[in-house]
Amino acid sequence: MPSIRRPYPTGHAALAAGLIAAALTAGCATSSVAPPVIEPKPETQARPVPDGWIPIVRYGRYTLVELVPEAAQQDLLLQVIDVSMPATLPATVGEALRYVLLRSGYTLCEAGSDAAVFHDLPLPAAHLRLGPLFLRDALLTLAGPAWELHVDDVGRRVCFTQEQEPLP
Fold first, then answer.
1. Whole-prediction pTM value?
2. CB-based burial of residue 125 (10 Å sphere; 0-12 exposed, 13-18 middle, 19+ buried)?
């Protein structure tokens, strides 16, 4: 029996050729046209913000971010710190307090008569690494229970006063 030569492939070869042709003609499904930019209309007076309205901005496809400052940005003592005291730092409580406050936005008050003794105390080994904890808690930990924390938010200074009279 003579073989019949068909001009078109049949069976699996036809299916594979069709799928390849479809894939090549389809291309990518993404669009290279940028979305239109909508310019906000200038307003002469601010509109009142309704109760419960939270301003947000979209980052990416599934991420919405609130346009409000974090609590630690409003109250700097709520910053979370994780500090290891360097070996070159003199091991005193005053130097440790200065090091913890270094990038916090606050400075340590100048040592008064009772605070001078406090600043020269040796730093306990347990305080060589602090955190993660709030800045306020780190300061209270370094100072100990006999000292009271006072914060001058106007001058961004941190001061300590003795809570109780020292024993003779």
1. 0.63
2. exposed
